[in-house]
Amino acid sequence: MRFWEIGRWGARERADPINSDNDGADSRIGESARKDLLRRIGTFLLGNRLDLSARNLVISHAAFSGGNLGLGRHIAKREFEALPITQGWLEDIISGDPEFADRQEEFDEISTKLDQSLVNFSETARQASKATARYGVELTQHVDRFAGSDLDGVCAVNLIHLTRSMLERTQNLEADMRRSEKEVTGLRNRLARARRDAELDHLTGLPNRRAFEAVLAREYREAMESLDELTIAICDIDQFKKINDLHGHETGDRVIKTIAEALARISNDRCHVARHGGEEFVLLFRGLTLAEAKERLDGIRENCAQRHLINRETDDPIGYVTFSAGLANVFGFPEPRAALAAADQAMYQAKAQGRNQICLAA
């Protein structure tokens, strides 16, 4: 099986039959596509004697539907090399995959509940603080009246002492409430930062794959409504493993950052750039035709190919670092995931044709 063959499964599938919340999703999936996907999943699990567990079904569906291109490539490469696919090997691959390792859906659910709890507590603290402040004002007025009245004796003295003690406790409680409200505000701010960090690739500063998927869903919906062009591209640094092997991972990271910075220069509210994982980047062009998007990306590719990089630690030449890319018209396919898989297939076509070039999806 060729490494890009996985993309064909995503291109034939028009919806996610496992995860879709739409009851009518099955009706939009071609009968042959569903049979092909089911047969591939069954062959993969049974042929490798893997458990027919819910987890393995989700993993294999992500690989063969085009939902997780990286995972699909790992499996295709393993099959191509005729190496055994065991449960242990599969778990090792999944453990290094952010999509499965980060458990982002659980984080989202927990953070949403926590945020709502903080909102509720903040409002309660604010109202309690206001009520306590009003109560303190009233107590102060009563103390003043008692102190200026004609009441004599132990009863009056005790009453004034008791009221003043209540006033002191009320003032302390009001201060505690204000501190609690301030702490809750700080917690909410930190939670908001954690959410932003969850969608950020910390090496390059670009949005990560999770953030890009949200952007793709939004732009797809808005582009459909406004009849805009929408083009998706996948870029992959050429011979990156060789760079890592010869110069080390730190140099490899700097190469990734260099390409990321070059791609980020064309990023704006109509062009979204993200790191899709490893040495791979994904771009979404709104309002540009396939040819226009190719021209825009080709300029970055040519500029990068002319830069001669040096290993800063050893002064050894790294050479010219290039990337290959594939582009697809999103509306030329049944749904965005299929377009992404087609762009991935076109990118591997560019690799097969000699690298350092851009190919268009059929």
Q: Level of helix content?
A: 55-70%
CATH topology of the largest domain: Alpha-Beta Plaits
What is the count of β-strands? 7
| Distance between the first and last residues' Cα | 20 Å
- Enumerate the spans where pLDDT stays under 50 for 5 or more consecutive residues: 1-29
Shape: elongated
Roughly what fraction of the amino acids lie in strands?
A: 5-15%
CATH architecture of the largest domain: 2-Layer Sandwich
Q: What's the CATH H-level homologous superfamily of the largest domain?
A: Reverse transcriptase/Diguanylate cyclase domain
Q: Find the structural class using helix and strand composition.
A: alpha+beta
* Total domain modules: 3
The main β sheet shows up as: 5 strands, mixed
**Radius of gyration over alpha carbons?**
30 Å
Q: What is the C-level CATH assignment of the largest domain?
A: Alpha Beta
Count of helical stretches: 14
Mean pLDDT: 78
Q: Please provide the ordered H/E string of secondary-structure elements.
A: HHHHHHHHHHEHHEEHEEEHE
Order of strands in the sheet with the most strands? 2-3-1-6-7
Explain how this protein is built.
With 362 residues, the protein is α+β, with helices and mostly antiparallel strands. The protein folds into three domains: 3-101, no CATH class; 105-198; 209-360, 2-Layer Sandwich (Alpha-Beta Plaits), CATH 3.30.70. Helices cover 63% and strands 11% of the residues. The protein has helices at residues 6-12, 25-28, 31-47, 54-64, 69-80, 87-95, 98-101, 104-147, 153-198, 209-226, 240-247, 249-264, 290-305, 336-352, and strands at 230-237, 271-277, 280-286, 308-310, 317-320, 323-329, 358-360. A five-stranded mixed β-sheet has the order 2-3-1-6-7, sandwiched between helices. Strands 4-5 form a two-stranded antiparallel sheet. A hairpin with a 6-residue loop joins strand 4 (308-310) and strand 5 (317-320). Helix 1 packs antiparallel against helix 14 (336-352), helix 3 (31-47) crosses helix 4 and helix 4 (54-64) packs across helix 5. The longest helix is centred in the middle third of the chain and has 46 residues, at 153-198. The chain starts with 5 loop residues before the first helix and ends with a strand. Mean pLDDT is 78; it is low at 1-29.
